[in-house]
Amino acid sequence: MRQVLLREVRMSLGFDETAPPGVGKRQNARRVPLDERASVLLSVHTEFSTVEAIWRQFEKTADCFAFQGFDFLETWYEHIGVRDNFEIQIVVAWDISAKPLMILPLGIETSGFVRSLTWLGKGVADYNAPLLAPGFTDRVAPGEFSRVWDDIVAALPSHDLIELLYQPAEIERQANPFMELATELNASGAHMTMLGVDFDAYYKEKRNAKARSHLRNRRKKLEALGEIAFVQPDTEEELYLSIEKLVELKTASLNAMGAKNFLMQPGYESFYTSLATKLTNIGGVHVSHLEVGGEYVAGIWGLVHKQRFYYLLASYDGPTYGSYKPGVQALVETMRWATGQGIKTFDFTVGDESYKSKWCEIHIDLHNHLAAKTFRGSIALLKTRLFLSAKRKIKQTPVLWDSFTKLRSRFLAR
Fold first, then answer.
1. Which three-class secondary structure state does DSSP give residue 366?
2. 3-state secondary structure of 179
3. H helices of 310-374, where?
4. What is the predicted pLDDT for the residue at 272?
5. What CA–CA distance (Å, rounded) separates 72 from 80?
């Protein structure tokens, strides 16, 4: 682990000390002479083990998303990140009383000759952001983060490109400080809904009488085929089998659309299984499926964090049961379960699929921060911007997106 004291950033935090004494003594910090009181001390960690205790304690009270949990990102690295040439560069920003202000789960990814600074969790994290201490903006006032960020970048190993994608403007109750940097809208937004305390009342408000009647009729037809059960696996073996079947159905669905099948990339299926094994018993991961006559017809994999459900992986057996709307049936059962657990927010996460508008009253814009640090990075940045711009244009133009998905399905379906 390396640790670096920030060059002077003149933010009056109201402390008398010039550095967090415990941090400096423990970790062999390199110190930089300061004219006035120092504001922030940075520690840069290249292994999860060196920051685990701090992170686990900090995330209990920090404003953050489920995707920035220690278990989530360590498991991602073990199964995916280590295969994709990621160098861990986790930054902890401390105030001068040795209390963490912010944790930034960063990494450097090498692709060809280009080294890119990105958020950890690439490929599985729908929202990227730092973890913030309560009252972060009381310590780092609005408008001052850009100077802190310059020093953070300077403290990290050399890289060609900064590519920070899928960043919400708010992190729980606080403004995301990365919005102070130059940003561009991501091609996709995200959607969520507030459940309330009575699911039946919520459901009646969201779906009109015709839609509710239609789904009831489909459910009756499913019941005619066999007993319907909403199943949450009790044992590790049942958990593995449920996820395995979900991945099988999701793979078939993606292949039929001609879409990229991320689940077949090395490490992805094992990531979802391993994280579920770690967190299901403590309520951090939700795995469930709908059975009809003992047959698996639809499944869901999601995260639960701070009274918020993240709806992440879902699929159903379309060829056999598609006409009965099993995916919607499973979704309704999951939302009913979530309401019963006291979950307040049901987050449909990234993607602008039309069905989300039937449930969600909240839309979230996501932002990208891109910057070149070298000439090589400038060339890569130009390519990245052209790609992301075209992607956003297609996704945000209904006619273009409809044409794209039809062509993709026609020529790339497997």
1. strand
2. helix
3. 318-321, 326-340
4. 97
5. 12
Is the CB of residue 345 less than 8 Å from the CB of residue 383?
no
- Taking 80 as the threshold, does the pLDDT of residue 24 lie above it? no
Q: What would the DSSP string read from start to end of 64-83?
A: --GGG-HHHHHHHIIIIITT
Q: Residue 200: exposed, middle, or buried by beta-carbon count in 10 A (0-12, 13-18, 19+)? A: exposed
Cα–Cα separations (whole angstroms), residue 210 to 135, 216, 217, 358: 47, 10, 11, 13
Cα 350 from Cα 158, distance rounded (Å): 31
CA distance 214 to 217: 5
| CA 47/CA 139 separation, integer angstroms | 27
Q: pTM of the entire structure?
A: 0.90
Instruction: Please answer whether residues 371 and 153 qualify as being in contact, where contact means their C-beta atoms are separated by less than 8 angstroms.
Output: no
> Does the pLDDT value for residue 54 go beyond 60?
yes
Those residues whose C-beta lies under 8 Å from the C-beta of residue 179, and which sit 6 or more positions away, are 167, 169, 367
Q: State the pLDDT confidence band at 20, using cuts at 50, 70 and 90.
A: very low
Please say if the pLDDT value at position 389 is more than 60.
Answer: yes
Specify the pLDDT at position 86.
94
Contact residues for 407 (Cβ-Cβ < 8 A; gap 6+): none
DSSP label at 16? -
- Mention every residue, 6+ apart, whose C-beta is less than 8 A from residue 51: 1, 43, 45, 90, 92, 103
Beta-carbon count within 10 A of 176 CB: 22
